[in-house]
Amino acid sequence: MQGHLATMNSGSVDVAATEYTVSDDGEHLSTTLQIRNPTRRDIVFSSGILHAHDGDVQLTDGTTTSLDGVRIPAGETVETTIHIDLNSEQSSEAKTAIESESVTLSGTIRGEIGEKGVSIPVTTGEGQ
């Protein structure tokens, strides 16, 4: 029953992107996700479809990004860093957007509460 209740309350789970960097090789946009799990069960995230933008300019291709089984304990907030693929054109645009603090991130991350699958929306948070 706790798993069912936790899944029903998955809408109260918050995921916000708070910091961005481009890797030295320019192949990845790294972002820190702050994930708050107010449910009574741990959440284990597996992957996400995430899109980074600078206004109308799409910085990432929205490919599947692995979260490698990131576990968020019940009632806790955890920060984790993920790496989203960039191509060479996107790398310079992403660096410019980070410097001007105009990057926004949207999409969903997928995981499980108990044995129930959930998709949680990602927003751009404070402190970018």
Structure in words:
The chain has 128 residues and is mainly β. 15% of the residues lie in helices and 56% in strands. The protein contains two helices and eight strands. It has helices at residues 2-8, 88-99, and strands at residues 14-22, 28-37, 43-54, 57-58, 64-72, 76-85, 103-113, 116-124. Strands 1, 2, 3, 4, 5, 6, 7 and 8 form an eight-stranded mixed sheet that branches. A hairpin with a 5-residue loop joins strand 1 (14-22) and strand 2 (28-37). It is elongated. It starts with a helix and ends with a strand. The model is unreliable at 1-9 (pLDDT under 50).
Describe the SSE topology.
Layout (H helix, E strand, L loop, with lengths): L1 H7 L5 E9 L5 E10 L5 E12 L2 E2 L5 E9 L3 E10 L2 H12 L3 E11 L2 E9 L4
Number of helices: 2
Instruction: Please state the CA-atom Rg, rounded to the nearest Å.
Output: 15 Å
**Poorly predicted ranges:** 1-9
The H-and-E topology, N to C, reads as HEEEEEEHEE
- The total beta strand count reads 8
CA(first)-CA(last) distance:
38 Å
Q: Structural class, from secondary structure content?
A: mainly beta
Q: Tell me, what's the shape? A: elongated
Mean pLDDT across every amino acid position: 86
Q: What share of residues are in beta strands?
A: over 45%
Range of helix content: 10-25%
Q: Tell me about the biggest sheet? A: 8 strands, mixed
InterPro entries: Ig-like_fold
